[in-house]
Structure formats: structure tokens, C-alpha cells
Specification:
The complex is a heterodimer of chains A (262) and B (66). Chain A is α/β, with parallel strands linked by helices and 262 residues long. Chain A has nine helices and ten strands. Classes of the chains: A alpha/beta (262), B mainly beta (66). Chains A and B meet through strand 4, strand 5 and helix 2 of A and strand 3 and strand 5 of B.
Chain lengths: 262, 66
């Protein structure tokens, strides 16, 4: 079926696969993976430069047609997220920001309340804000009211590869929220990405599973195919699950009719 | 002149402007973001920004992240 583009803040994207750039073994591998994935949006982070040694600039390995989405990783509250976003904007690399406010080192769960506060401030300043949250309907509504361009609910803990542990809560957001839903975090296999898309998610973001694979570019390609397959399945319409069998071949009128009517 | 760069105290003999300091650290000015005493210094302003004793400078850049 023909699809319409994914539109975020008025910008159309034909790929529904957002790629995180963390944990890659080297920049060449990252560049190959971006190409193989077909992604049009990648996330990056901001860090203090290392004063003691030379570091390769990651931006040189991201093609110009790819939209940069700077995350606010390291922010523990709204104020720190706002500071990071403003720094990123000053680089001249655009004003797209993934709000990520984390104040828990064991589960790395996002702080939804602080995320809403940061979204209010940054949207008012003209940023395109893609907030990362624990899936929650009221938070998502508050984010939309605050001007969020998407809502990005987590599938499971960051880097856990556990897939859609929050499936039912994400489904509520898909059903009720009008901005694009991008499933982020915990997606560890193409089948999990396909599942999110079959449910009606608008896009999927993956990083750890791909970057830590022995062959990131090949796995990124597999994710891209799965996301496309899941999207096509969603557009086509999937059947309801049944609790008993429904024959897919005719069971009467042939060979054993006399036996079956006993 | 004693200043703090990225949280580390450093003594600078160079009393040049911020642009000179970034270059002296061996950093490409492109895609480096500077913040002096909590205020962002846009790249085009670095040449006119002079540091003074006790200043706190942050220099950040883009890295991989999810």
C-alpha cells in the first residue's frame, strides 16, 4: 500500500526509522550503518570536549540530508535540559531536540514532570521538541498542550533489548494522541520494531541493539525492513485474535464427508 | 591567569581572546560550543571575548548518543 510521509513539525520523512548514534565502535561503522538504515533522523548528544586528546567530530560522519536531533542526556531536571538544548542550538546544527530528563541511575527512567516543564519552555522558544517519556496518557496530553512535535514513549528500559514491555500503555497513546508516536528505548530486535509499527506507532528509534551488534549495518537494514513491514501491515489492517480455531480451508464437501457426518 | 575549563582549573599564559584559546587547545572551532560563566558565547563573538582571572569556561561538542 502507498504510505504518506511521516510529518514532524511540518517536515516530511519517508523513513520511519530513527537511529541513535551512541556506542558504535568507530565512526566509519556509524556512517555505514546510517547509509544501510535509510534513516533520515539521527540522535546525537552533547558533552564537554576532552582537553587531553583529539576526538573525531561525529558530525563529519552524518550526511547533510539527515536531520540532527540532539538529546539532552545528562540532564537531571528541566533546567539542565533547557541549558543543553540552548547550547546545541547555538552550534548552528538546527533546533530539533529530544528531551531526555533522567534522575535515576538504576532504571534510567525519564522524569515525566520535568520533561513537560522543559517542553513548555523550549517549545515557546521555537525549538522542535521530541520528548522521551514513560508512556502515560496524561503526560502525553500535557506535552501536546505544551507544543511537543511528537511523543516518544519507552518500550522498555534503555539498552535492555526487552522490547515492548509497555505495549498496552503505548497503544493508549497511539489511540488517543494526535502527534506522531515514536517508540524509543528497549527495542532489541527487528520483530519488536515491527510489532510497534503493526500497533500503529508512527516510527521507531533504535540504538543499542544495532550499535552493539557484530554487524551494525546489516542489522540496521533488517530493522528498516521490519519497520516497513510493520507499517504496511498496520495500513493494510490486521485481524482480531480469536480464542478458537477458524478453518482456513473448506472442511466439507470433499473425500471424508461421510465420515465427518457420523 | 587562572580559569576553569570544563570543571578543571587551568593556568593560561595566553591572554588572547576566546577564539585563540579554543585554537590553542587544538580544537576545531566548527561545532564547538562555548559557554562563559553560564552564558553562551556565539562563535562569531569569540574573537571579541576576552577572559579574565577566575572565569569559568565550558567547551562542548557533539558525540554519539541515543
Amino acid at each position: 500500500m502507498t504510505d504518506t510521509p511521516l510529518v514532524i513539525a511540518g517536515k516530511p520523512f519517508t523513513s520511519r526509522f530513527l537511529l541513535g548514534t551512541g556506542k558504535f565502535r568507530n565512526k566509519q561503522q556509524l556512517a555505514q550503518t546510517i547509509a544501510a538504515s535509510g534513516t533520515q533522523i539521527v540522535t546525537v548528544a552533547l558533552r564537554r570536549i576532552d582537553l587531553e586528546r583529539h576526538e573525531e567530530n561525529i558530525l563529519e560522519h552524518i550526511p547533510p540530508h539527515v536531520t540532527l536531533l540532539t538529546n539532552t542526556s545528562g540532564a537531571r531536571n528541566a533546567q539542565e535540559a533547557v541549558r543543553i538544548a540552548r547550547l546545541a542550538k547555538d552550534s548552528g546544527c538546527g533546533n530539533w531536540v529530544k528531551i531526555e530528563v533522567i534522575n535515576d541511575s538504576k532504571y534510567l527512567l525519564p522524569d515525566n514532570q520535568e520533561t513537560v516543564k522543559a517542553t513548555e519552555i523550549l517549545s515557546a522558544e521555537g525549538f522542535v521538541v521530541l520528548p522521551y517519556i514513560s508512556p502515560d496518557l496524561y503526560t502525553a496530553r500535557a506535552l501536546v498542550a505544551a507544543g511537543a512535535a511528537t511523543v516518544m514513549p519507552l518500550g522498555s528500559f534503555i539498552g535492555s533489548n526487552q522490547g515492548l514491555k509497555t505495549r498496552e500503555l503505548i497503544q493508549v497513546l497511539i489511540n488517543e494522541i494526535d502527534v506522531p508516536i515514536v517508540v524509543d528505548a528497549g527495542i532489541g530486535a527487528p520483530s519488536q520494531a515491527a510489532e510497534a509499527m503493526e500497533m500503529g506507532a508512527d516510527a521507531v528509534l533504535a540504538n543499542t541493539a544495532i550499535a552493539t551488534s557484530p554487524n551494525p549495518a546489516a542489522l540496521a537494514k533488517a530493522f528498516a525492513l521490519a519497520i516497513e513491514a510493520g507499517r504496511q501491515a498496520h495500513l493494510s489492517g490486521l485481524p482480531q485474535q480469536q480464542t478458537s480455531a477458524k478453518a482456513s480451508s473448506p472442511l466439507t464437501g470433499f473425500l471424508y464427508d461421510d465420515v465427518r457426518t457420523n | 591567569m587562572n580559569i576553569t575549563i570544563n570543571g578543571t582549573p587551568r593556568q593560561l599564559t595566553n591572554d588572547g581572546n576566546l577564539s585563540d584559546i579554543v585554537s590553542a587547545l587544538g580544537k576545531q572551532p566548527r561545532h564547538v560550543i562555548t559557554e562563559l560563566n553560564g552564558s553562551i558565547i556565539p562563535s562569531q563573538m569569540r574573537g571579541q571575548t576576552r577572559l579574565k582571572d577566575g572565569d569559568s569556561l565550558e567547551i562542548v561538542t557533539f558525540v554519539g548518543g541515543g
